[in-house]
Fold this sequence. Notes:
The chain has helices at 2-15, 33-43, 66-74, 90-97, 146-163, 168-193, 209-215, 233-244, 259-269, 289-305, 308-311, and strands spanning 26-32, 47-53, 77-80, 109-111, 201-203, 219-222, 250-254, 273-276. By secondary structure, the protein is an alpha/beta fold. The longest helix has 26 residues, at 168-193. The strands form 2 sheets. It has a 4-stranded parallel sheet with strand order 2-1-3-4, with helices on both faces. It is globular. Residues 9-20 have low confidence and may be disordered. The protein has 2 domains: 2-185, Nitrogenase molybdenum iron protein domain (Rossmann fold, 3-Layer(aba) Sandwich), CATH 3.40.50; 187-311, 3-Layer(aba) Sandwich (Rossmann fold), CATH 3.40.50. It binds zinc ion. Zinc ion is lined by residues 60, 135, 141, 205, 207, 227.
Amino acid sequence: MRIRTTIILLAAACAMGLAGPAAAKLKVxxxxxxxxxxxxxxxxxxxxxSLLCPGPQDPHYLPAKPSLTRKLRKADxxxxxxxxxxxxxxxVLLRTARNNRLKPGGRGELECSLAVQNILGIPTxxxxxSQGDIHPLGNPHYLLDPRNGAAVGTLIAERMAELDPAHxxxxxxxxxxxxxxxxxxxxxxxxxxxAATARPTIVYHQHWEYLLNWLGIEAIGAIEHRPGINxxxxxxxxxxxxxxxxxxxxxxxxxxxxxxxxxxASERMGAPLAVIPGAVGADPAADGxxxxxxxxxxxxxxxxxSDAAAAEGTP
Length: 315
Ligand SMILES: [Zn+2]
């Protein structure tokens, strides 16, 4: 899609005799690789996007480096996930970057969770540190529902249009085209997930709530009892017992999870394990937001299809 846009824009520029030096681009800093990809799609030729947390890195934790501060210092717009996903590292970086354009509540900062209608996993009752790295405002991993990615694209386009009115139409057109592409693939992705959509799962971290909700997969347990804290052997044993009681269960872990624990647990349950990317770039094949869902749904389908015995309910 980006290539097509480039060709159209170049053709327009040539026709108008505008082949001179390009106008200054909107400088965008994105916290997550998914957001960087969406911002680059929507920003096209009119924006320059830099990424803070690379795909293979667990976005809950990011060591603050001077190179990250420099990216924030130059930015006209910061797009971030919100719901406290980046709370451990973004405020620190923003303090050192001292970029007035990105002040909280200003036009230069955009919390993308504002695009999401239905925030899942809002804890009920009191939460405190003893429960681990809990997400008190709800599950922040909403980009794992592709429909939310489309909504975020529209939100980003509106803000880009506000900051750079000369290219407002182009931002909006690219966001609309991204939405169309995502909508056009939803059924295909569901097909790729295949048998997984009819089986219960045990997750490693509560990373997949939005993905599972979209695909209609029921999560019956989590290996990581308290988010961000290694599970105790006692808890792992409980989850294994839970898994063994359901012959058709499968296990889902992210590429950055403690895979030795996930592998051992799934082996003891006799359940297949799908290791899937939790972000764009977390796996080499998931090199874009759309490609990420190709990989995720493909692996869910493969893991559950190769396990025909369990699918038929054989203990
Ligand atoms: Zn999380």
